[in-house]
Amino acid sequence: MSKGDPVADLVEDMAAEEKARATYEHLIDLADDPDVIDSLRWLRQREVVHFQRFGEILNKLYEWKDSKKYF
Description:
Blueprint: H1 6-30, H2 34-67
Helix pairs in contact: 1-2
């Protein structure tokens, strides 16, 4: 859900990625089929990468906001 505030939106996106990662971790712990586990690990890693990319964007946004000059 978009709040119209890029910081709030990115933090919300990061939280969603982390929740998905935790869900995949839980499913990996329950699974016993190696093919299913491999697929879940791939999906978990995708969530980790998404989380990292959102964090990079958030850092860039903070840098941009800090560099703005107000007169």
